[in-house]
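Sharing a chain and its predicted structure for anyone who wants a worked example. Both blocks are below, sequence first, tokens second.
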Amino acid sequence: MSQRIVLATPAIAPTGANHQRLHDAGLARRGLLALTLAFGLGGLPLAQAQTPQSGLPHSRIQAGMHLIDAQVAATPQQRSIGLMWRQQMPANEGMLFVFEQPAVQCFWMKNTLLPLTAAFVADDGSIINLADMQPHSEANHCSAQPVRFVLEMQQGWFARRGIQAGFKLTGAPFKPGQP
């Protein structure tokens, strides 16, 4: 995705006080342009903006006999980056998004290169609903009811294992008393 910035310039040469005002506005536009170029997407430096996040904590989740190694995105910044820019992901690896309070959670796939399935999960580990999501799509995919957890896996991972809404995941995040 490329961003295009257009800066307007006056059609006639200004004079007097108008010249100073336009000069000051030009400096402000150049400063804004510099900030936009330096911090690009979402306030992140451009060098980081296209780099998958790493170093997140992991949690083991069980889906029946299947083990999932889930990276945990628990802070607003970690959740906002999610799996963006990731070019590949092992078959049994995913990302668990953890929110402070249950709410209707909506996800999109801007800057996400891999097709994913999102499982919207209740506090007890029950899958409320599943949503297949296409790369680069800005379409919203939302939970059918308020949840605190969303588990993203490679698209089709749940379907290939016969896992549907109502299936119960187990693991530390879904135990009573967990933050």
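Comments welcome. Helices lie at 16-39, 46-49, 76-81, 157-160.
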